Amino acid sequence: MLRIRLVLWYAFLVVMTVAAVGAIQYILLYRSLTNELDTALLDDARATLRLVETRTTQQLATSSTTPKTNVPRSLKDIIDEALAQTPDTIKGDELTDRVLSYLMNEMLNQLSAQDSSAANPFDLIVERTLTSKRNNMVEILAKAPDSSGKLPVIFRTKNLSSQSLYNVYKNHFSIERDTAVTLGSSIFNDDEVRGAYVGSKQFGVIVSFSTNYIDDTVSGLLRTYLFLLPIALVIASLGGLVLSRKALKPFEEIAETAQDISAKNLSQRISMPARQDRELRLLVSTLNSMFGRLESSFERIAQFSSDASHELKTPLAILRGEIEQMQRKIAASQTIDRAAAESMLSSMTEEVARMQRIVEGLLLLAKADDHRLTLELETFDLAEFLRSIAEDAEILTIDRELTFHSKIVSDQAIIRADKTKLYQVIMNLFDNALKYTPKGGEVTMFLERSGKEVRFGVSDSGKGIALEDQDKIFQRFYRTEEARSHRGAEYVARSLGLGLAIVKSIIDLHQGQIEVESEPGKGSKFIITLPLV
Ligand code: ADP
Hints:
This protein is of the alpha+beta class and about 525 residues long. It has helices at about 1-65, 75-85, 90-115, 120-130, 165-170, 210-260, 280-335, 340-370, 380-400, 420-435, 480-485, 490-495, 500-510, and strands spanning about 135-140, 155, 180-190, 190-200, 205-210, 380, 405-410, 415, 440-450, 455-460, 515-520, 525-530.
């Protein structure tokens, strides 16, 4: 069902969007937290190195002969110094953190300098580590190898016990070359840790910290999204249901009305929706025009069946009458007069022939409707072809006391067409001209070239066709009132009302056109246009 599919798609898209946003946030948060930790570790390592170097230099200085007085500096000087050492890219809270951390180191330096020249720098590191936001693991190495060639560890924070950070990270940096590097992630005591290294000529400082808090923060975010996902799913499903119902309602209404329209009430139409619903209006107008076409084709079929049965009814009734009459005569006298029998039989043959022509005509039209009527195309000169028909036609006109004219141009008019069917077309037009032109009138067969086309046909000086009938005469079984009322015996035999319908089907099949120019009382001209080869 479309509605369910829409809801499922909608819910799926919403859930995928929430999941994608969650995944992106997860990655961004994880990266920003690890970057932040790396920068902080590097700062801590730098501060620790500074502390170690200052204190050891001071110790050396105090142990020398000239005692050096440590001149206290102003707060502003220290802040300026901190700012000068901080890269420009660092701003906001991070900048404040850095300056404060620098300030704290300096204050510890100065306090310890004033307090006692013998203060142990490593105590200060411990103190700093304890008072810092993180309980960092710190290891300080002296760069001068001891007698065994190993780098002596001169300090380790308690949280390291006796384990070496250098062993964990030694593949991540080069103690000879690197001065300040972040060491990335590593495993220490089954814990993921990140670290930083800062080195001077004398010392190397490794600072490391567990990433547990990062994992906690990002998994908190993940939990929030996992909690949000089912809620989003429920909201999306309900919302989708409401939206799809609203969006599909007009279509359901249209479908209901369309269902009501059957063969019996094809004149009914679906009412137009509001102006703003363009797509709906398009659908409704398409359906309505389809119903319109259906209606007219139903009407045509109904009209056609009634006309066809009507046309067949008359000859059948005559045939039956004649047979019954014959039977009665035979029953009465046991014998039948030869001349009477012959006349009845010839009348019957006429009716049978008429019915045969109707059935053949209908068969041809049905084939044309079904696209089963095929053409046997050949290329020939139409002017020459018409000239040969005109010779026979002239004899027929003389029989009827009509004057015949041939206005066929002497040029060639090469076309590609079905000769037999084209002969049928011309003879139909010619036959009509004979039927509807009174004695003494004129019949003309004409052909002229015009550009890439040839125009040809038959014209007469007969009774003509009223304007309102001119487009109907090509319909099946259509006869003008005039033609119906003036039916002599000859007309009854020859007039079927199918001739022009057949002509039009054949010309359509040749991709041509047929038109009529006529004025009642003056005559008619049937013009066919076909493309030249
Ligand atoms: P029919 O067998 O009745 O001639 P057609 O389909 O050939 O059937 O013609 C349809 C109707 O068109 C005729 O009944 C007649 O009323 C009219 N018609 C056709 N040709 C002519 C013509 N040359 N002059 C006047 N009316 C014509």
